[in-house]
Every structure is written in structure tokens, then in C-alpha cells.
Design goal:
alpha+beta; 7-stranded antiparallel sheet; 3-stranded antiparallel sheet; 5 helices
Length: about 170
């Protein structure tokens, strides 16, 4: 599989080489903190993990919602993880999240409409707080909380850090 994500370790951190623009061959190196990588490991992730994202993306593409390459790259690393964190966080409670786009089937219109409102290609990546909210990602790798309102956790892998540590997303007033 030729997904645009590579990982390595440096100084206890897990580094990712992430291709942010598909018009360019330039990669951007991002890192997960050792604490966040440790939490992800507890739930089945490891730096060399690569899975086929097509079982998650094909059903949406068949319904007219294409998956950006950035989403496919992300799901190849993190798809299928069910991260059961809880307790107090940095500025909000730590809530469990599951990175399974199929949990969002039937919500294609919600993602299409928010994507159009924000001017991005928004694709579902899972649920937050046991289905209370949806999670989506755009073509640049920004992760969003999606409901009848929308908020941004920022670019991944920093967004994964925010989800695990309990950092509230920034509400977007579109």
C-alpha cells in the first residue's frame, strides 16, 4: 500500500512524515508526544501500523462523498482504533473516540453541507463521546467535531493529542 504517511522515532517522540499537499512532493514532519503515543498503543496502535482504508472510504465514495488522500493516509495509520480515554483534561473532559467512519453512515449530507459551508472537502472519520458527536477530517488534515455546530481540533497529529489530553476544540462560526 502506498499511503503518504511514514513514521519513525526520535528522542522518545513518534515522528510522522505527512504529505500536506498532493500538488507538492514536500513532506511535513509532525510528532506525537511519548505520552500520547503510549495511550494509542494501549488501544492497538503502533508506529508501523498500516491498514487498508478502503473498507471505510468506499461506502461513502459510492454515496458521492469522496475521501481526500489525507484522510486515506490518516485512516491507514489510525482507522479502527477505539480510544477509551476519560477523566479530567486540559480544559475539557477527556472523552472516548472511535476512528471508524462507518459509524457516520447516513450522515453524508451533514458532512457535505459543513464542507461546503467551510470551503473544504469534509470526510467522516468516526465518533466522539460514544456517538454524541461525529469526527471529520478535511483534505489538509484538520480534524473537526461535527454536529449541528462545528469546531476544529486542528491538524493531525496535534488533533489526536488534543483529543487524548482533553483539549477543547475551537468552535467555528461559519
Amino acid at each position: 500500500m502506498g499511503y503518504g504517511v511514514r513514521s519513525a522515532r526520535a528522542g522518545g517522540r513518534v515522528l510522522f512524515s505527512v504529505r500536506r499537499s498532493h500538488e507538492s512532493d514536500k513532506n511535513e514532519v509532525k510528532a506525537l508526544s511519548p505520552d500520547v503515543a503510549g495511550v494509542l498503543r494501549e488501544f492497538g496502535w503502533h508506529p508501523e501500523r498500516i491498514v487498508d482504508p478502503m473498507p471505510w472510504t468506499n461506502p461513502f465514495e459510492e454515496r458521492g462523498l469522496p475521501a481526500p488522500q489525507e484522510v486515506k493516509d490518516f485512516l491507514a495509520q489510525f482507522g479502527g482504533l477505539n480510544v477509551k480515554v476519560s477523566g479530567p483534561g486540559v480544559n475539557c473532559a477527556r472523552e472516548p473516540f472511535e476512528l471508524d467512519p462507518l459509524l457516520c453512515l447516513g450522515e453524508e449530507d451533514r458532512f457535505s453541507e459543513w464542507g461546503a459551508e467551510l470551503g473544504v472537502s469534509l470526510f467522516p472519520i468516526g465518533e466522539l463521546d460514544e456517538g454524541r458527536f461525529f469526527l471529520g477530517m478535511d483534505e489538509q488534515g484538520v480534524i473537526y467535531l461535527v454536529a449541528d455546530w462545528i469546531a476544529s481540533f486542528g491538524l493531525w497529529p496535534e488533533a489526536i493529542d488534543a483529543l487524548i489530553r482533553g483539549v477543547a476544540p475551537e468552535e467555528i462560526h461559519a
